[in-house]
Amino acid sequence: MFVSAKWGLVPSWQKEASSGRPPPVNARSESIGSNGMFKRAYATKRCLVPIDGYFEWKDIHGSGKDKQPYAIAMKNGAPFALAGIFDIWRNPANGELLRTFCIVTCAPNELMATIHDRMPVILAPADYARWIGPEADPADLMKPFPSDLMTMWKIGRKVGSPKNDTPDILDPIDP
Questions:
Q1: Which residues pair with 103 in a beta bridge?
Q2: What pLDDT does 64 receive?
Q3: Which of 172, 150, 146 is nearest to 159 (CA)?
Q4: Number of other residues whose CB lies within 10 A of the CB of residue 37
Q5: What class of enzyme is it (predicted)?
Q6: What is the arithmetic mean of pLDDT over 29-40?
Q7: SS in 3 state form for the chain?
Q8: Hey, what domains does the chain have and what are their CATH numbers?
Q9: Is the pTM of the predicted complex or chain greater than 0.85?
């Protein structure tokens, strides 16, 4: 079943939809089962986030200010799924529901380690049912995906703005 959700986890137990800080968009695999923000959703509300690629930025000079964006996808061009967790927050004033999610991250594989110290948990299709199934702690699935099945390329900085919603943001740039 596909459902729409907002990126940034708002736990159902939170009193207000906004806690004053932006909701987390990622959950670290190493602490997801023990972190109070994520542990209930991890145990009971895991989801698959279908994508055909994602972006990551490499900090070029270590300053955090000068970053080179990259596009990352499967070598064969196929869509894939990220491990996610979700929750549903109910507005106490009007009963409206807010469905939110975040992506689970892990240590990088060899490819991703060249640009970043984390990567999303990419699940093999054979593991989809297990991730969303009733098992309370499928921790062994939260590991780096094999580098040899992935590809990445430098792209222009237009990707950093939502107003640039055109296919050419994926065009490779000269190295």
A1: 26, 84
A2: 67
A3: 172
A4: 19
A5: hydrolase
A6: 96
A7: CCCCCEECCCCCCCCCCCCCCCCCCEEECCCCCCCCCCHHHHHHCEEEEEECCEEEEEECCCCCCCEEEEEEEECCCCCEEEEEEEEEEECCCCCCEEEEEEEEEECCCHHHHCCCCCEECEECHHHHHHHHCCCCCCHHHCCCCCHHHEEEEEECHHHHCCCCCCHHHHCECCC
A8: 6-170 (3.90.1680.10)
A9: yes
